[in-house]
Amino acid sequence: MSGFSPGDVVRCTLGGSERRGVYITERDGMAVLKLDNGYNIGVFSGDCSLVERPSPQQVTKTEVDQDLSLPQLSIVSTGGTIASRIDYRTGAVTSQFDAADIMRAIPGLRDIAHYRTRKLYTILSENMTPAIWQELARAVYKEILDGAKGVIVTHGTDTMAYSAAALSYMLDTPVPVIFVGSQRSADRPSSDNMMNALCSASAAVSDLGEVAVVMHDTTSDDRCAIHRGTRVRKMHTSRRDAFQSAGVPPLGYVEYPSLAVTLSPGTVRRGAFEPALRDQLEPRCGLVMFSPGMSPEIISAYSGYRGLVIAGSGLGHVSTTLIPALKALIEEGTLIIMTSQCLNGRVCDRVYDTGRDLLKIGVVEGEDMLPETALVKLMWVLGQKRDPDEARIMIQDDRKRDFTRRSRHGL
């Protein structure tokens, strides 16, 4: 072992040149260092020498000065990469700070509004659950009732689309509710957290009146797109412009660095709804993707579930061998929604025999809803304690503009 401790400043020789960095950890005889440019390198431990071992310091968080004449926004923090740093003990990105820390890290937020901050959770978004969605909806609803002119929800990007859809259904909001995250942590030189945060605050004081996701529109720092909470999907694992509106144009854009907001004509405007909370969800719902040769046992495993969304092939198909298992679920009382794996277009089970057989046993067409949106909507609809016939009608009701009656050319 090298004898270094996480956080030590060390000097090493690499390729004939001298480098300085912060020691993170040691793996397989290699010291992992973070350089000043934000990147990590691996060097032989024996080629390193200690420069400085900082003494432990107690960090004192100062209050953030705010202009109370500006609109009041609330920041509800759930964690995610936008609220993450490198953990120098492991070199991993972890959620380590909250909404107030974000304000300290991005002083430009204070030029847009003054803020209340609330840390609800500090988790990465793969750990989200329907129960946390409910807590989040209640927290946002309370902030609205307490006078917030807009609410910003900081959230991990991996499941942000699910959470945005969940709040879209559970909340009627007269003010913007903006989900924002980042693809790269704050201490990386390519981080998108500052621009996304400033654009989200600008959208939160705009004339918007619905739940939306605000993230980079391109790989450059030129503008953010505003996406409807029920029509957005993460389309790339790591690019900064990973989020796109599916089947519809974005609700608008926030230019950067001017932070000018432009909203499309079809956007729900501020004050269109009175605040309302309907936070009941039925967690016994599932989402399964059809694949060729899929065993009927996979479908039968959902016995006892109240709802199931299938991401079918093409226009919304599964193999004929699955139809008896689907029929058995429906006869048990499971509501089954058919969506498509395709990124664009809509379900139509009236074209081919298999589709007609699915309709005959009672499968409900999901129009052009995203599979993940359909899952959240199914949880919400069944959570309202509706009878099966009414639930089927509600699924095919265009709530929160989650699907379109007609597919536009080119989308």
Structure characteristics:
globular, 23 strands, Rossmann fold, 9 helices, alpha/beta, SH3 type barrels, 411 residues
CATH class type of the largest domain: Alpha Beta
What's the end-to-end separation, in Å? 57 Å
Tell me the structural class.
alpha/beta
Overall residue-averaged pLDDT value: 89
Helical residue percent band: 10-25%
For the record, the CATH architecture of the largest domain stands as: 3-Layer(aba) Sandwich
CATH level 3 topology of the largest domain:
Rossmann fold
Query: Uncertain spans, ≥5 residues at pLDDT below 50?
Result: none
Shape: globular
Number of domains: 3
Biggest sheet, spatial arrangement of strands: 9-6-10-12-13-14-17-18
Can you summarize the main beta sheet? 8 strands, mixed
At the fourth level of CATH, the homologous superfamily of the largest domain is: L-asparaginase, N-terminal domain
Q: Please, how many helices?
A: 9
Strand content of the residues, in percent? 25-35%
Number of strands: 23
What is the gyration radius calculated from CA atoms? 24 Å
Give a nutshell description of this structure.
The chain has 411 residues and is of the alpha/beta class.
Protein architecture, described:
The protein is globular, with a radius of gyration of 24 Å. With 411 residues, the protein is an alpha/beta fold. It has helices at 99-105, 130-145, 160-170, 193-204, 296-300, 323-332, 353-361, 371-383, 388-395; strands at residues 9-14, 17-27, 30-34, 40-44, 48-52, 72-79, 84-87, 92-95, 114-123, 151-154, 171-172, 177-180, 211-216, 223-228, 232-234, 243-245, 252-255, 261-263, 276-277, 285-289, 307-312, 335-340, 364-365. Strand 2 and strand 3 (30-34) form a beta hairpin. It has an 8-stranded mixed beta sheet, with helices on both faces. Helix 2 packs across helix 3 and helix 3 (160-170) packs parallel to helix 8. Helices cover 22% and strands 28% of the residues. The mean pLDDT is 89. It has 3 domains: 9-52, SH3 type barrels; 72-277, Rossmann fold (3-Layer(aba) Sandwich), CATH 3.40.50.1170; 285-401, Rossmann fold.
